[in-house]
Amino acid sequence: MNQQMRLLGWATLLGFGLAGLALVYFFQETSVWELLAGHWPLWTQVLIGLLAGLVSGFFAKWLILRSFFEKEKIKYRDLINQWSWTPTGIVFISFCAGIGEELFFRAGLQPLLGLWTTTVLFVLLHGYLNPFNWRISVYGILMVGLIAFFGYLFQQVGILTAILAHAAFDAVLLFWLTGGDGGTKGQRD
Questions:
Q1: Which pLDDT tens digit goes with each residue over 130-182?
Q2: 120: burial class by Cβ within 10 Å (0-12, 13-18, 19+)?
């Protein structure tokens, strides 16, 4: 894992994560400890989060493999593969994004802005709702549903579930997209 990747991971984890925890601490009635404890037992939060992330990640992969998204798949695969990825780097970045972004968007913003506003903001900031690329916007609209599902998991189960779902989702796509040929070995569209 190179230095840039390590810095990006830590910046995401600490920058977004601490900002999210500050929003909880200063602007919400929930304590940080209540937030971290969640609503369901820890083992249930872990199981649901990992399962939701893996299923969502494999669904996104299946969707991206449709010929409709061929140009976008190549564009994002090439963009991601500008970096030298290792399995450790993929896991590190996935967990940093999962923890940092979910603490900020789910725990920090969602209780203040609502599920749908936070969801659309998240997808917009990730560039998936793009008026100049209607194909990526189709993917973005589908991502709105998926991200809203992660927000629902946060509300009903706990932040750990949303964090693990996000991290597992990212890991599935990163392992696939960095697999040498963009994950198309032996697969037909």
A1: 999 999 999 999 999 999 999 999 999 999 999 999 999 999 999 999 984 33
A2: middle
Helix (H) or strand (E) holding 139: helix 134-156
Closest CA to 164 of 40, 71, 68, 73: 40
Distance CA 153, CA 52 (A): 9
Side chain identity, residue 84:
S
The alpha carbon of 118 is separated from its chain's Cα centroid by a whole number of angstroms, namely: 13
Taken as a whole, the chain contains a residue count of 189
Output the pTM of the full model. 0.92
- Cβ atoms 108, 20 nearer than 8 A: yes
- The residue type of 54 is L
Give the tokens for residue 66. 């449709």
Instruction: Let me know the angle formed at the C-alpha of 13 by 11 and 158, rounded to the nearest 5 degrees.
Output: 160
